[in-house]
Amino acid sequence: MIDLFNMLAAYLHDVFIIKFDGWVVLGFVAQAFFTMRFVVQWIASERARKSVIPVAFWFFSIGGGVLLLIYALYRRDPVFIAGQALGLVVYVRNLYFIVVNGRQASAKD
What we know:
Layout: H1 2-18, H2 22-48, H3 55-75, H4 78-108
């Protein structure tokens, strides 16, 4: 059991202390953007008493998606790169619909 604890401690030290750099900070900032989009959506839905997706949700999605794509490119992770790139297409497309249809039409949904 002590060996398991020591292995876990060594792993956590390696991940959170030794490998901590500016790229990890960027990854955490990007993840914070994604967290904020859900917080914004939750607050808007609670206020409206129905499911609502505010425009800010898409801006946080694009911000988080761009930062995570940069992070994924740096880390050279093909799965992460593909996932973030595809997500950005969806986020930008939704923002396009909001601009074209106007904010009033998107608020009714």
